[in-house]
Amino acid sequence: MPLLGCIADDFTGATDLANTLVKGGMTAVQVIGVPKGPLPDADAVIVALKSRTAPVAEAVAESLAACDALLAAGAKQIFFKYCSTFDSTDAGNIGPVADALVKRLDCGFALANPAFPTNGRTVFQGHLFVGDKLLNESGMENHPLTPMRDANLVRVLGRQTDGTVKLIPLSVVEQGATILRHTMTGLKESGWRYAIVDAVTDAHLVAIGEAAADHALITGGSGIAMGLPGNFRAKGLLPDRGEAAATLPPMQGHAAVVAGSCSRATLGQIGYARDHAHTLELDVLATPDAAALAAQALDWAGGKLGDHPVVIAASAPPEKVAALQAKLGRDAAGALVEQAVATIAEGLVARGVKRLVVAGGETSGAVVSRLGVASLRIGPEIDPGVPWTYAEPTGLHLALKSGNFGARDFFLKAFGV
Ligand SMILES: Nc1ncnc2c1ncn2[C@@H]1O[C@H](COP(=O)(O)OP(=O)(O)O)[C@@H](O)[C@H]1O
Ligand SMILES: O=C(O)[C@H](O)C(=O)COP(=O)(O)O
Fold this sequence. Notes:
The chain is α/β, with parallel strands linked by helices. It has two domains: 4-241, Putative sugar-binding, N-terminal domain (Rossmann fold, 3-Layer(aba) Sandwich), CATH 3.40.50.10840; 248-413, Molybdenum Cofactor Biosythetic Enzyme, Chain A (3-Layer(aba) Sandwich). 37% of the residues lie in helices and 21% in strands. The chain is built from 14 helices and 18 strands. A 15-stranded mixed beta sheet has the order 9-10-5-11-4-1-3-2-16-17-18-15-12-14-13, with helices on both faces. Helix 10 (290-301) links the parallel strand 13 and strand 14 (310-313). Helix 11 crosses helix 12. The chain is globular and about 65 Å long. The two termini are 39 Å apart. 55% of the residues are buried. Adenosine-5'-diphosphate binds at residues 12, 144-145, 260-263, 266, 284, 314-316, 320-321, 324-325, 333-334, 337-338, 360-363, 402-403. The site of the ligand O=C(O)[C@H](O)C(=O)COP(=O)(O)O has 16 residues, from helix 1. This is 3-oxo-tetronate kinase. InterPro entries: 4-carb_acid_sugar_kinase_N, 4-carb_acid_sugar_kinase_N_sf, NBD_C, NBD_C_sf, OtnK.
């Protein structure tokens, strides 16, 4: 029976959250899509949806179905996981999904915090920073699907919900869990629906998590989950397991990387790979056809597959992304590339690839769905927020890398080369 039931709006974010919970001593399993049957036996079950950029009604319906399945399995707390850079359009989906969950859980209030200081995501005076840049100057303003052009999260969430959004500033967070708990209770009793809570260190996140121990719903990035395992231990519900990362089966088979993320970190990792591995960068603008792109890539990969990873990227800098979107439209351009990368991944697996890194959240959704993966066991962390996972019964080891996570040498480091 899961203690914590999680609903993630993309697949990389789901593994990111699962990684945090496992490092905190919870066993965790990631389930792909709205659960149809019994849930796996784990302290935390993370339902990975591809809802971040789906139509609002679809995102809400899938999230509610996931919530109902988690509650039916006995989950004592629900966690709605979205991006550490609050990836969303002004139409949604963070606000509408959170509103629907607040209503379904009849809890009236939820905190919202995307901070992940280890990866440079901090919130101060309600403004989201990536490193030393405001969100809208970090490169996320150029995201192909969810360009983030406002760093003020009170304003951003306020545009997405019919509820009210209040800031809990760092001056309150610094006073610790007890004051925080009373502050949030006061806001709820005063009719506020959400609080964007400042956090610039892990200690802040742990205190916020402790203060929310009895909240029916918590919303945020993986960082705000850091304190949750301790809550369950304090209640005597979670034995002390140390870090509960699953020991995954030994890795075998050919190694490959497929990339659909256009985030700055991924573009840098592709640049590093050019000098250290067989790397193919597809020109999607020249060949705006998913099947043709996949054929190009699989012909190229032919005799190159082995222990050293090959890297196949559809990713492009903002101006090239904009050109394809002008030609096809934003959604069609995104879908075309996601399908091309999914077909490439499917072809690589058919050619003996059993160790696969996928760069990009939406991209991972397309790939994992195409490979028919139903659930993922969470293994050891490669870089902050990115663990290896194991997809039974396919025998695949997968690392679903958030676009902006990972060191510059991540594509080689993941395979120990
Ligand atoms: N060359 C390109 N032109 C237009 N869109 C692209 C291109 N390459 C990738 N994309 C799309 O950009 C989006 C990247 O989103 P995602 O995979 O979630 O990456 P991230 O993790 O960086 O957010 C996907 O929809 C992908 O298909
Ligand atoms: O950044 C995060 O919190 C998550 O890892 C995530 O949601 C990343 O999404 P992306 O689409 O892979 O950037």
